[in-house]
Amino acid sequence: MEIKLEHVSKYYDRKILDDLSLELKDIHALGIIGESGCGKSTLLRLLAGMEKPEKGSVWVNGTLLQGKAVKEYQKEIGYVFQKHNLFPHLSVKENIVLILNKIKKMPRPEAEQKAETMLKKVRLEAEMDKKPDAVSGGQAQRASIARALATDPQMIFLDEPTAALDPLLTGEVLRVIQELKGSGKDFIFVTHELKFLKNFADYILFMDQGKIVEKGSVECLDAPQTERLKNFVEGEL
Questions:
Q1: What count of Cα atoms within 13 Å lies in the side-chain half-sphere of residue 122?
Q2: What is the C-alpha separation between 177 and 188, in angstroms, rounded?
Q3: pTM of the model
Q4: Measured over all CA atoms, what is the biggest interatomic distance in the chain, rounded to whole angstroms?
Q5: In Å, how far are 125, 153, 207 from 11, measured between CA atoms?
Q6: Which residues contact 59 (CB under 8 A, 6 or more apart)?
Q7: CA–CA separation, 120 vs 146, rounded Å?
């Protein structure tokens, strides 16, 4: 995975991302961390092409994320939200079938078979015909991961996928994500789970007040170069 940011700024009612420039190559699992409101989820959405910067350019794997290129790029990625974001009126299985129909134009019998395969992979074969509100939060989030994987994307984006879960369900979801590490796909994720970060990421960005304050291999968590990262790590332990 290759990422290039050139003087990227993003505003809402205030400046969320402040003149970010970055160039990364040969990264397979990028973790983005920082306090709430620092801009990490906004950066994730920009890298996924879900939002546009007010200033600057975003490149991922050689594609400039603007104009018509964004739509083609998004066919090759999967996105898992903080809350599962499943369609409530459809079964867990039908949530996946619908995506395969719309994005991959897959015939229904093939889509159903693929959905069942993906749900077995995340150990949800017994829940596939249930509606999202009839399964636990952890099961719904695992179904969301299966849906993101079903289109066979090159990259998976994860925006604090355990933020809405209690500790028991958090462990359940993180184990499923950890099992995906050898799948050959690339990951960009936001998390506050430092143990998971250390086991999963090969590179991290630490953000504070809209800026990238520190970056490097995951080992930098054990020897922070800035007081801000040191305080953050100590606060999360």
A1: 30
A2: 12
A3: 0.91
A4: 56
A5: 43, 29, 16
A6: 2, 3, 4, 5, 6, 65
A7: 9
pLDDT digits 0-9 by tens, 50-60: 999 999 999 99
Predicted confidence at residue 199, as pLDDT, reads 87
Beta bridge partners of 188: 30, 157
Residue where the block lists tokens 């007010």:
54
Six-digit token string for 17: 């991302």
Q: Please, what is the end-to-end C-alpha distance for the chain in angstroms? A: 30
pLDDT in tens, 214-236: 999 999 999 999 999 999 888 87
Distances (CA, A) of 115 to 92, 128, 236: 9, 9, 37
Radius of gyration of the chain, Cα coordinates, nearest whole angstrom: 18
Instruction: With both helix axes pointing from N to C terminus, report the angle between 92-104 and 108-121 in degrees, rounded to the nearest 10.
Output: 130
pLDDT of residue 13: 84
